[in-house]
Design brief:
232 residues; alpha/beta; single chain
Length: 232
């Protein structure tokens, strides 16, 4: 992502009026959004203990934190996000579970050293250029115990010049079919097309392997979205 585009994105996520509408957005753009969160909780639980300490990168909004916390009452969390307003929303979303979560404003380098029993990064890595994705994923990996699970899900689809525009159009069309304002959906499509350094699913899997993860396995695919589970 270009530096100016990153600044614009952070400005939006720190705008209280934008943040107030955030919780409506992901489910309109990502097929099965709530199910992805539930699947992530299931995949993490396969190897995480009942008293796991879990790292969530891109935790603003708190929606996946809430799902994880309600599904596994013995877990505690560290949630990291660069947007302070989004972290405030996360605190509100978590409600009574907020006491189990340490919310930190920043990037992966602002996370504690762990070691964590599990980690998740949902709807976040697609904001990063390839090299920064590798670095970020490697820093997540470094903070995990050996064999700990990591779940990632984000925008990932074929990037060849012929089919990329069609997939971007489908991205917007699904949002409109899910109730999004057409003008807003088109603006989102144009922003993604212009500013995000998206990768194909094959490249995204390669990023996780380069970062040191093993047994990288896809668990979710829907239109322009993919999800993987991998192990430290």
């Amino acid at each position: 992502m270009q530096a100016d585009a990153m600044k614009d994105m952070l400005a939006n996520f720190n705008d209280p009026s934008h943040v107030a509408q955030y919780t409506k957005g992901p489910a309109r753009f990502m097929p099965g959004y709530a199910d992805v969160q539930r699947m992530a909780a299931v995949l993490l639980r396969e190897r995480a203990p009942a008293d796991a300490h879990v790292l969530v990168l891109g935790a603003g909004g708190g929606m996946e934190l809430k799902v994880f916390a309600e599904a596994h009452p013995g877990w505690t969390f560290e949630g990291v996000d660069p947007a302070g307003e989004m972290l405030k929303l996360a605190g509100r979303t978590l409600g009574k579970n907020a006491s189990r979560v340490d919310l930190r404003e920043g990037y992966i380098e602002d996370a504690s050293e762990g070691p964590f029993d599990a980690a998740a990064c949902l709807l976040t890595l697609h904001f990063l250029a390839r090299g920064e994705r590798v670095r970020t994923a490697a820093e997540i990996r470094r903070r995990l115990k050996s064999g700990a699970p990591f779940v990632a899900a984000h925008s990932s689809f074929p990037q060849d010049a012929e089919t990329r525009p069609q997939w971007l159009s489908r991205y917007a069309a699904f949002a409109i079919a899910s109730g999004a304002d057409p003008e807003m959906a088109e603006k989102a499509r144009a922003g993604v097309a212009a500013h995000l350094d998206l990768l194909s699913p094959e490249e995204d899997e390669a990023v996780l392997r380069e970062a040191g993860f093993r047994d990288v396995t896809p668990f979710y695919a829907a239109f322009t979205w993919r999800g993987w589970v991998a192990y430290a």
